[in-house]
Specification:
With 417 residues, the chain is an alpha/beta fold. Helix 5 links the parallel strand 5 and strand 6. The strands form five sheets. The protein has a seven-stranded mixed β-sheet with strand order 4-10-9-8-7-5-6, sandwiched between helices. The structure holds pyridoxal-5'-phosphate. Pyridoxal-5'-phosphate binds next to helix 4.
């Protein structure tokens, strides 16, 4: 598209074409056009190494974990636990006791809301979130507040989509029992000042959960450096499979918390009178876990680290700048989310065109973007709009794909002229 757009002077830190070859789905055509997959904030595509790891598990070692003495069960258990150790390394947790496998980030937040927060909440207590949370970091807190008579407080954001830190600090009161804040907004791309968030809360003795669902595949997330109490991430955004998520929690918290769900594997003994709980982290993993998911996630984290998070971040920064220029060159487009510190998300509206129409027309050109409220309805309300169109970037995207988006959006303009 518009060739006069100046290329930002950021050197590409890795060979994107080589990376693209690792993702078989990227070779597909959609509606006769090469696929430009720009819906990565919803889920990322999977490299061949992840697909191979999952297939190899089912082909060669499929068995249930933690239960059998036979060879396959032992190997499946080893592979599953190696996945946990890989997650520990990726997030730099002190121990595998601090890593619980969940289905997704949503389950991790629910586990903390119901097992950690709910028993501590009394009428009049407060839970603090921010105005840019995903529904999965709003609704669990509403449920526990409703059940206990606690109040949900919301730290505001400004017109750029940045957290107003002084307001966040003001809302950390003697009644606040937990703060649960995103590391990166899926609707706006804002990267929040997580270190300051934890520091301010810690100064008042308030535990913090960090939702790293978006951040964890764009930048290094280190739970020791953050010193957060809990952190969640979700495998399918980390180039891994769906159905596997991660909850990090400080061991002392996990030790003190009751189980979230009951069943097999999470017990040490069961009688009809009383059961007792398994050691960490199994106390929180009731039933047969997603063994293939943990193995696939292991391969995905290996892939990310072999590619290099710094190289990925530099590449995505270049794309974000380029994509911003592409969108700003089109009449009637307004970006929603202009935080000074943001990553990989281009949320926008176009004068006189509903985002759903934008999404449908660009799809005909092979460009996959998301339209709607992005499970962040309060963000839409904050900006006075019902929905946005959102292009979101990953390590395999290219400037050419952003050009394809630009051409497709020009086409939308023509249709609605
Ligand atoms: C910031 C954020 N938090 C939480 C979630 C929930 O992830 P999952 O649906 O995998 O639980 C998402 C998913 O889009 C997200 O972007």
């Amino acid at each position: 598209m518009t060739p006069e757009i100046a290329a930002p002077a950021v050197p590409l830190a890795f060979d994107v074409q080589r990376a693209r070859a690792d993702f078989p789905i990227l070779a597909r055509t959609i509606n006769g056009k090469p696929l430009a997959y720009l819906d990565n904030a919803a889920t990322t595509q999977k490299p061949q190494v992840v697909l191979d790891a999952i297939a190899s598990y089912y082909t060669n070692i499929n068995a249930n974990v933690h239960r059998g003495v036979h060879e396959l069960s032992a190997r499946a258990t080893d592979a599953y636990e190696a996945g946990r150790e890989r997650v520990r390394q990726y997030f730099n947790a002190a121990s595998v006791h601090e890593i619980v496998f969940t289905r997704n980030a949503t389950e991790g937040i629910n586990l903390v809301a119901f097992s950690f927060a709910r028993p501590r909440l009394k009428p009049g207590d407060e839970v603090l979130i921010s105005a840019m949370e995903h529904h999965s970091n709003i609704v669990p807190w509403q449920l526990v507040c409703e059940a206990t008579g606690a109040h949900l407080k919301v730290a505001p954001i400004d017109d750029r989509g940045e957290l107003i830190l002084e307001e966040f600090d003001r809302l950390l009161t003697p009644r606040t029992r937990i703060a649960s804040i995103t590391h990166m907004s899926n609707a706006l791309g804002t990267i929040t000042p997580v270190r300051d968030i934890v520091r301010l809360a810690r100064a008042k003795g308030i535990p913090v959960l960090i939702d790293a669902s978006q951040a964890a595949y764009h930048m290094r997330v280190d739970v020791k450096a953050l010193d957060c109490d809990f952190l969640v991430a979700t495998g399918h955004k980390l180039y891994g499979p769906t159905g596997i998520g991660v909850l990090y929690g400080k061991e002392a918290h996990f030790e003190a918390m009751p189980p979230f769900m009951g069943g097999g594997d999470m017990i040490s003994s069961v009688t009809f009178e009383k059961s007792s709980w398994n050691v960490l982290p199994y106390k929180f993993e009731a039933g047969t876990p997603d063994i293939a998911g943990a193995i696939g996630l292991h391969a995905a984290l290996d892939y990310i680290d072999a590619t290099g998070l710094d190289a990925i971040a530099a590449h995505e920064r270049d794309l974000l700048e380029y994509g911003t220029q592409v969108l700003q060159s089109i009449d009637g487009i307004r970006l929603i989310g202009t935080a000074r510190n943001k990553a990989s998300i281009l949320s926008f509206v176009m004068d006189g065109v509903h985002p759903h129409d934008i999404g449908t027309i660009v799809d005909r050109e092979g460009v996959a973007i998301r339209t709607g409220h992005h499970c962040a309805q309060p963000v839409m309300e904050r900006f006075g709009i019902p929905a946005t169109a959102r292009a979101s970037l990953a390590l395999y995207n290219t400037r050419e794909e952003l050009d394809a988006l630009g051409r497709a959006l020009q086409r939308v303009r023509e249709v609605f002229a």
